């Protein structure tokens, strides 16, 4: 294939504050939900951080080493870097009236460094974390007041970085709140479906208000949502399986429908009616929801299957989030099923549904990289994963889908979100760090580093 990607297509990588920065208590930063989940988003929250450490406390020390990392990204030819702002660096408890200047100043330095390398920042306002103070003192997103605190935070960073950041995202994988409520909406395990959906409603309202604020404060910026692109296939062609799959996909499409169309879809209203979920939605809420996103961003790692036969689900489930595995696909070491064509399908589905530009802001292969006798990492498996996915992005572009860019997940090894593992590596750049926290934190280039450099330089011609 020798068609190239459009010239304006953005190439780069994606990071999240709590998985890279470390410096968990530096410069006035407050404690976040991520700090209270030292074992990752599917772990148990600790009661207190007294005497408990987490690998995320130092992570890969991006807080101090970002100049070196950014120059390596520039060497690969990145034109875009997705990062998130840690809300707790700006409002340590979440409910202060005034922001923390030291936190604001650090992101100024980060954005200046990116600009010096001609790398455009794409900034997530909330990537899997919120101030713990808002969970303890207000009950997380279950409390309407959190909308106001979030809006204050969003307006603060839009105003401060209006000349430096022109691409924004509201909530990372907003649909994950259904599976990891503490990380998503600051609710404890065991909360009811009605509580989760009310908290999600508050978050959707806050997302709409952030879109409005962004358009007011930075008229030439674009702001998008961020979905976990969890495309599901029917396990068989039985009409029951096909319909169950349609419903299953609506678990993530619901968020996209509200954020792109500005209102709740009929299928969700039926679901709420039939499950005794009576949401408290005000007229102001509806006005906020009407501020729809400029583009859609999503993560894509795998697909799964759905069957209407609940006994079969019990027998077969085992993939992440209890999905039924696809018998036609291979899996990664972590059991994530590898499906490049699914990315082309998802891009087409999203484009057909919303007709808004799309941005792939996460995609990659988590693997245990082992240095060879010369200390080199020959990660051909990663190259082949990324290559096959990018070929499908190219196909989707040929299909007429408007794709803004591609930021691969974890361009440098980082701490994984699910289980806080450093052994699950995604990077083009290796970081010398072991799970017990030992290591020099030195950076080195893997084979995939040179491969990605060539792909970017040839705008996909080298795929
Ligand atoms: C997404 C998250 C990221 C990230 C990635 C890979 O769900 O947005 O934060 O970490 O998945 O997951 P993991 O780190 O668990 O391998």
Automatic annotation (TrEMBL):
The keyword Transport does not apply. The active site is at residue 362. InterPro entries: GH (IPR017853), GH_1_N_CS (IPR033132), Glyco_hydro_1 (IPR001360), Glyco_hydro_1_AS (IPR018120). The keyword 4Fe-4S does not apply. GO terms for molecular function: 6-phospho-beta-glucosidase activity. Its EC number is 3.2.1.86. Keywords: Glycosidase, Hydrolase. PANTHER family: 6-PHOSPHO-BETA-GLUCOSIDASE ASCB-RELATED, GLYCOSYL HYDROLASE. Belongs to the glycosyl hydrolase 1 family. This is 6-phospho-beta-glucosidase BglB. It comes from Pseudocitrobacter corydidari. The lineage of its organism: Bacteria, Pseudomonadati, Pseudomonadota, Gammaproteobacteria, Enterobacterales.
């Amino acid at each position: 294939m020798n068609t190239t990607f459009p010239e304006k297509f953005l190439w780069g990588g994606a990071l999240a504050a709590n998985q890279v920065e470390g410096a968990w208590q530096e410069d006035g930063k407050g404690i976040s939900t991520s700090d209270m989940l030292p074992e990752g988003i599917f772990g148990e929250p600790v009661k207190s951080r007294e005497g408990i450490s987490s690998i995320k406390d130092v992570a890969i020390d991006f807080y101090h080493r970002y100049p070196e990392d950014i120059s390596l990204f520039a060497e690969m030819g990145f034109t875009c870097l997705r990062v998130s702002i840690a809300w707790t660096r700006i409002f340590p408890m979440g409910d202060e009236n005034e922001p923390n200047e030291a936190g604001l100043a650090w992101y100024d330095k980060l954005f200046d460094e990116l600009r010096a390398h001609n790398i455009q920042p794409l900034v997530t306002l909330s990537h899997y974390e919120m101030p713990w103070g808002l969970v303890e003192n207000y009950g997380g997103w279950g409390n309407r007041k959190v909308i106001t605190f979030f809006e204050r935070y969003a307006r603060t960073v839009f105003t401060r970085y209006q000349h430096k950041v022109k691409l924004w995202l509201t909530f990372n994988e907003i649909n994950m709140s259904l599976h990891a409520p503490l990380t998503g909406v600051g609710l404890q395990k065991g909360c009811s479906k009605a509580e989760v959906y009310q908290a999600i409603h508050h978050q959707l309202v806050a997302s709409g208000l952030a879109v409005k604020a962004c358009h007011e404060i930075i008229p030439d910026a674009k702001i998008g949502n961020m979905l976990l692109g969890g495309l599901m296939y029917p396990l068989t062609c039985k009409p029951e399986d096909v319909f169950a799959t349609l419903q299953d996909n609506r678990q993530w499409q619901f968020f996209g429908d509200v954020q792109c169309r500005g209102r709740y879809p009929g299928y969700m209203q039926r679901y709420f009616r039939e499950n005794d979920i009576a949401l408290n939605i005000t007229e102001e809420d509806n006005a906020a929801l009407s501020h729809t996103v400029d583009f859609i961003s999503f993560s894509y790692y795998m697909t799964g299957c759905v069957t209407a036969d609940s006994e079969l689900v019990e027998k077969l489930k085992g993939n992440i989030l209890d999905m039924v595995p696809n018998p036609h696909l291979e899996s990664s070491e972590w059991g994530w099923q590898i499906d490049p064509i699914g990315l082309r399908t998802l891009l087409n589905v999203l484009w057909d549904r919303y007709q808004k530009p799309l941005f792939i802001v996460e995609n990659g292969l988590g693997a245990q990289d082992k240095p060879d006798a010369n200390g080199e990492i020959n990660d051909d498996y990663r190259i082949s994963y990324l290559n096959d996915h990018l070929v499908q992005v190219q196909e989707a572009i040929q299909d007429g889908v408007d794709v803004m860019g591609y930021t691969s997940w974890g361009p440098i090894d980082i701490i994984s979100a699910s289980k806080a593992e450093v052994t699950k590596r995604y990077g083009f750049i290796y970081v010398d760090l072991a799970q017990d926290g030992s290591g020099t934190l030195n950076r080195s280039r893997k084979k995939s580093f040179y491969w990605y450099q060539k792909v970017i330089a040839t705008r996909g011609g080298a795929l």
